[in-house]
Amino acid sequence: MPTPTPPPILHRADAPAAPKLRARLHKQLSATGAEQAVYQCDPGGLPPYVLVSAVRRETMIFPCDADGEVSDWGDLVVIHHMSHADALAKAGYSIVGPAVSR
């Protein structure tokens, strides 16, 4: 008796892809022990400029101005590993253009 063929894995064709807003690296900052940068964000989620700071196994996003001056230290996003891309993705954004370099 032949082995039955398993049914194909079906994907939901009606499930739309999550919209991705864009964040562009605006300014890289240096801070002792932290990887920080200012990103300019598309409208529709985060403020126009955000500071993304990765330090000690976590990454946080704060609202700021174009120079990186934080306007409110209440974090908008926190993830528990160091990744600018992952923190921005949690807020619905993808990084376009150059990425942060050390």
Topology at a glance:
Blueprint: E1 21-31, E2 34-41, E3 49-55, E4 58-63, E5 77-79, H1 84-90, E6 93-96
Parallel strand pairs: 1-6
Antiparallel strand pairs: 1-2, 2-3, 3-4, 4-5
Span between termini: 61 Å
**What is the percentage of strand-forming residues?**
35-45%
Q: Indicate the low-confidence ranges by residue numbers.
A: 9-17
**Secondary-structure element order, N to C:** EEEEEHE
Shape: elongated
Note down, in words, how this protein is organized.
This protein has about 100 residues and is mainly beta. It has one domain. It has one helix and six strands, in the order E-E-E-E-E-H-E. The protein has one helix spanning about 85-90, and strands spanning about 20-30, 35-40, 50-55, 60-65, 75-80, 95. It has a six-stranded mixed beta sheet, with helices on one face. A hairpin with a 2-residue loop joins strand 1 and strand 2 (about 35-40). The chain is elongated, with a radius of gyration of 19 Å. Mean pLDDT is about 85; it is low at about 10-15.
